[in-house]
Specification:
Blueprint (H helix, E strand, L loop, with lengths): L7 E2 L14 E5 L1 H4 L5 E7 L2 E9 L1 E6 L2 E6 L2 E5 L5 E5 L4 E8 H8 L13 E4 L4 H14 L7 H23 L8 H17 L6 H8 L3 H12 L3 H19 L4 H7 L5 H12 L3 H9 L2
Parallel strand pairs: 1-3
Antiparallel strand pairs: 2-9, 3-8, 4-7, 4-9, 5-6, 5-8, 7-10
Helix pairs in contact: 3-4, 5-7, 5-8, 8-11, 9-10
Length: about 290
């Protein structure tokens, strides 16, 4: 392993680049999986979110350190920055929609509830909304190939329909005592955005709340309602996610991992990781490397 073990692509196999803030791309699953013999190795995308719709086939999707089986019809939600990989059954089929972070924020701004779609990765049974997703992708594919009147509005309409269908799939898979909608979902999404920027700095919760323009109690209430967890747990989970990534995909020592995550004391990091994962960082790495 090396510290650059996980490649960061624009689209899979393409070097990172700066593109339009309104970047949107739709392609057939076959376009990149067939040349790769139906296997996509671990990688991530900075600033790009993916929505996969699998209409035929089965396989396994790996999201961070978790491997999940799937069978068509299925929808995968892969937020920007999440490490993911696939092993598809030969001749699997479907579509891959890629949308930039700024464009997603713009479209999702029509209803704060839509920010929950890419709040976390998900592998979903698409059957309850398969018709709506298929119709939305078909319309979007047509709109992206021509410049008819009101083209941009039509594209946005298709995107909104796809986000709504995805949100409803997520809602079906979420315990009913953990609703996620409205202003509290929007606040939680903004909080996650700040966590993403600052988790290595370990700011106090009061600092997060101040920069979000709310009280600590308001932030706690929003996180509990829309994410089912208090804000400190969301911060800790993001730190531990990055720790797992570094332990699996790099050759950094445990102490180096701790320092890279902003810990002053590697022992403090190790205790927190052990409590979170149920084993020490070293044991976790050995277990994952043996798989």
């Amino acid at each position: 392993m090396s510290t650059a073990a996980v490649p960061n692509f624009f689209l899979y196999g393409e070097a990172p680049r700066v593109d339009s803030a309104r970047f949107l791309h739709l392609e057939a699953l076959d376009d990149r999986t067939r040349p790769s013999e139906w296997t996509i190795r671990p990688h991530a995308h900075t600033g790009l979110n993916h929505l996969f719709f699998i209409t035929q086939g089965s396989g396994e999707v790996r999201i961070e350190a978790k491997a999940l089986p799937f069978a068509a019809p299925a929808v995968f939600v892969i937020p920007a920055g999440v490490i993911h990989a696939f092993a598809f059954e030969a001749e699997s089929a479907g579509s891959v929609l890629t949308i930039s972070g700024p464009y997603l924020a713009e479209v999702a701004g029509r209803d704060p509830a839509l920010t929950a779609v890419f709040a976390q990765p998900a592998v979903l049974d698409a059957r309850p909304e398969a018709e709506a997703v298929a119709y939305g992708l078909s319309r979007l594919g047509r709109e992206l190939t021509w410049a008819a009147p009101a083209h941009e509005v039509a594209v946005e309409s298709c995107l909104l329909g796809l986000l709504v269908a995805s949100l409803r799939l997520i809602a079906r898979s979420t315990p009913q005592d953990r609703p996620s909608a409205g202003r509290q979902a929007e606040l939680t999404a903004r909080f996650r955005g700040l966590i993403e920027q600052r988790y290595r700095e370990h700011p106090r919760l009061e600092t997060y709340a101040r920069d979000l323009g709310v009280s600590v109690s308001q932030l706690r209430s929003a996180c509990l309602k829309s994410a089912g967890a208090p804000p400190l747990r969301l911060i800790h989970e993001r730190l531990m996610l990055e720790a797992r990534r570094l332990l699996i995909y790099t050759s950094l020592t445990v102490a180096q991992v701790a320092y890279s995550l902003g810990y002053d004391d590697p022992a403090h990091f190790s205790r927190g990781f052990t409590q979170h994962a149920g084993c020490s960082p070293r044991a976790f790495r050995e277990r994952e490397m043996s798989r």
